[in-house]
């Protein structure tokens, strides 16, 4: 019963949805990836119209950049626009030879509002930084990676909010974490759920927890049919 009450408080902009619906209130779905890795997905976390307001605000007001990073030592244009927000006094973020400038939460009141909604929906979370991504179309993507930078601590919790074009978010088990059985056929191996796909809806939130960044990789691959922009917010905590 307690679990159910908690779920009800999560649909911040959708109080009248049907609690008996499959997947819980607001379609909330908990996926146990095994070995202490978990994903919570709430497709209708923020209201539809409010989410378009957020999209339009962010599209227009965020100082988006498309930086050149380094991959295997070679310069590589990041295949999406990004921006970084962080609370004052935190360790600097650095990834793939790139140190993004940190903007302040106060410069973007709608981001403070969304952060507040995330904290209310996930009691115990304390996010203090945010990486924003803008995928202009189906050619923009994020390749396979884990958000396992040391400054996020040993078991980072990451809450990811999506606006605009629906895209596939895929989780696959790291190759060295796959359970290999001698002589096992690839089809049998596939049945062991070494990968999961979430179609991330406008206004949804997906939270990765526990060992997910240790044992799993995630990506948002190119999609020829994705013909409009998507904005994604990934809230993180720097320790
Ligand atoms: O766009 C997404 O849903 C994922 C983005 C992501 O994985 C990241 O910024 O680390
Ligand atoms: Fe990521």
Structure report:
The protein has 239 residues and is α+β, with helices and mostly antiparallel strands. It has a single domain, classed as Alpha-ketoglutarate-dependent dioxygenase AlkB-like (Jelly Rolls). It contains five helices and 13 strands. The two termini are 33 Å apart. The relative contact order is 0.21. The chain binds 2-oxoglutaric acid and fe (ii) ion. 2-oxoglutaric acid is lined by residues 131, 133, 142, 147, 160, 169, 200, 218, 220, 232, 234.
Which keywords apply here?
binds fe (ii) ion, 13 strands, alpha+beta, four-stranded antiparallel β-sheet, binds 2-oxoglutaric acid, 239 residues, Jelly Rolls
CATH superfamily: Alpha-ketoglutarate-dependent dioxygenase AlkB-like
Q: Helix tally?
A: 5
- The percent range for helix content is 10-25%
CATH topology: Jelly Rolls
Low-confidence stretches: 1-9, 14-22
Ligand inventory reads: 2-oxoglutaric acid, fe (ii) ion
Put the structure in a nutshell.
By secondary structure, the chain is of the alpha+beta class. Helices cover 18% and strands 32% of the residues.
List the helices and strands and how they pair.
Elements: H1 2-8, E1 29-34, E2 37-42, H2 48-61, E3 68-71, E4 74-77, E5 81-86, H3 109-121, E6 129-135, E7 142-145, E8 158-164, E9 167-173, H4 186-190, E10 195-200, E11 204-210, H5 212-215, E12 216-220, E13 230-236
Antiparallel strand pairs: 1-2, 2-11, 3-4, 5-6, 6-13, 7-12, 8-11, 8-13, 9-10, 9-12
The protein binds 2-oxoglutaric acid and fe (ii) ion.
């Amino acid at each position: 019963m307690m679990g159910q009450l908690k779920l009800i408080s999560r649909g911040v902009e959708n109080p009248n949805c049907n609690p008996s619906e499959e997947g819980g209130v607001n379609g909330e779905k908990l996926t146990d990836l095994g070995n202490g890795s978990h994903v919570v997905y709430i497709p209708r976390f923020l209201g539809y119209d409010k989410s378009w307001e957020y999209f339009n605000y962010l599209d227009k007001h965020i100082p988006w950049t498309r930086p050149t990073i380094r991959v295997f030592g070679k310069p590589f244009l990041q295949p999406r626009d990004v921006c970084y927000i962080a609370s004052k006094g935190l360790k600097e973020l650095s990834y793939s030879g790139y140190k993004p400038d940190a903007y302040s939460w106060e410069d973007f009141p709608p981001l403070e509002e969304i952060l507040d909604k995330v904290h209310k929906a996930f009691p115990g979370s304390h996010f203090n930084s945010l990486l924003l991504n803008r995928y202009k179309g189906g050619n923009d993507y994020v390749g396979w990676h884990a958000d396992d930078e040391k400054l996020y601590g040993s078991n980072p919790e990451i809450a990811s909010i999506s606006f605009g074009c629906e895209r596939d978010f895929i989780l696959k088990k790291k190759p060295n974490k796959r359970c290999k059985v001698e002589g096992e056929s690839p089809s049998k191996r596939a049945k062991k759920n070494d990968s999961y796909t979430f179609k991330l809806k406008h206004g949804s939130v997906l939270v990765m927890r526990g060992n997910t960044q240790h044992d799993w990789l995630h990506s948002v691959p190119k999609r020829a049919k994705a013909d409009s922009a998507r904005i994604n917010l990934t809230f993180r905590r720097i320790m």
